[in-house]
Known about the structure:
The complex is a heterodimer.
Chain A: E1 4-8, H1 12-22, E2 27-32, H2 35-45, E3 49-53, H3 60-71, E4 76-81, H4 86-95, E5 99-102, H5 107-118, E6 123-124, H6 126-135, H7 154-164, H8 169-176, H9 180-196, H10 200-208
Chain B: H1 5-13, H2 15-44, H3 50-70, H4 81-88, H5 96-124, H6 134-193, H7 198-216, H8 228-243, E1 247-252, H9 259-279, E2 285-291, E3 295-302, H10 314-329, E4 333-338, E5 344-351
Parallel strand pairs in B: 1-2
Antiparallel strand pairs in B: 2-3, 3-5, 4-5
Helix pairs in contact in B: 1-2, 3-5, 3-6, 5-6, 6-7, 8-9, 9-10
Amino acid sequence: MNPSVVIVDDHELFRAGVRSELAAHVEVVGDADGVESAVPAILATEPDVVLLDVHMPGGGGVEVIRQVAKVRPEQRFLALSVSDAPDDVIAVIRAGARGYVTKSITPAELADAVRRVADGDAVFSPRLAGFVLDAFAGALPASQVDPELDQLTAREREVLQHIARGYMYKEIALRLGISAKTVEAHVSAVLRKLQLSNRHELSRWAAERRLVD
Amino acid sequence: MATAAPPAEHERERAPRRRGRGSRRVAVGAALLALAFLLALRQLGLLFPDHIVWPVMLAAAGVALIWRQWGGRPAPPPTTARSAATQAAPEPAVSDERAALRTLYRGGVGVALIVGAGLLFLYANGALSGLGDVALTALVAIVALGLILAPFWWRLGNTLAAERAERIRSQERAEVAAHLHDSVLQTLALVQQRADDPKTVATLARRQERELRDWLRGRPPTAERESFSAALEAAAEEVEEAHGVRIDVVAVGDHPLDERAEALVAAAREALTNAAKFAGEAGPVSAYAEASPRRVQVFVRDRGPGFALDAVPPDRRGVRESIVGRMARHGGTATLHTAPGQGTEVELTLEDRE
Lengths: 213, 354
């Protein structure tokens, strides 16, 4: 069965484009052009995945996630933006999005990303993988490290490097000699660290996010 | 506040029409209360002597009047004058001339009050008689003058600050406008001219996008930055433009652009050119660079047909050797990962020399 999707973006042309591109792969059950209309639309249709623009008037994607999560914490979001600035990406991930892709993504890849998020997995673009590797690069004093959250395991690092190099999950599994499910588990673990770690770079990026959209 | 409260409530009821009169009542009420308070203190003997208190009160009243008339916010610049004017003057019926007269009149009363206070003070202290204290007289005159002129100084300072802020704002606006004009508008014009040539349009749009992103992030253009990652990004931009293939660059960490790093960038450029030439149709090319003080690595990956390593097409051998040879000369390595149907990845590694 195709996953159900609500598209939230303040550009009508873009919504229409995504709708027609994804028509064969997902069931678009609604769309919205801003924070205020998005929240009731999402709560009314309860889609598998919300495709969410990061920059919108009235607080942007982060605000939509915040308001929906109060009522429906299990709602899954995939952020979709023209911006590839680290502060935008990290802010929306830390608000609770399960993935981040840029709008230059091909329709096939977008459909794949939606399906992956609908299945509960995380979706990292190569650039997001690069940000994460950057953020977790510096060594921390041992006293400040929460190894559960503040450091990547060697395997997680390897998986992220392959994503940054442009490999798909299937190809990564093949190259590393592990199953695709294991690759997904690693990525989900990284997503969790990204959302919960207090590493300086992450909080700084989250704080630097410009409030004027 | 018992006496003042009723008029205040009264005033709120019919605020729209009779605000001026209502606030005057409040003012009178407050003044009377203050007077009562002072008189009570005086009766209890807790007050400064009369010859200080009365002049100070007079002067205070004068200062209040002057500030009310002339100490307000400076007149806003012409662009926003209209909205500000409607705020400042809720009674548009009053003609400008009358308003000016009233201002002058109130200001005059204020000045007179301050001067009078000064004279009263001097008189009460005996300084006006022939043998009075000249220093004290001068001091009082200076204080009075200062009190009268203070609003004008304050206003002048405010006006200057406001003008400066406005000047900075308009400069910034002009800068943004000039930038958009030189970049985005030019590109849009070109795009319209070349609308029948999708490849050129895509290239134009991509170049403009990159330039605008750098500008928004406040980074200098890649050509003006001196580092390994900037050089790699610049190389990728050139290849992208030459071949019309999208190249996504992700760089983690950075490294100074020394001779060996330059060689690595040159080898990466060859690999990118190769990928764009032979696999550009199959989708975007990925370049991933990871730099640390000890090691710099570049991966160039395409989604093309790939090939069997032992059957390298002759037209690729030369380039491949130039990549491998160049890396070897600088103490690095180049590895090819490929198989038919799986795309090609070139891995370039430069370990730091001891």
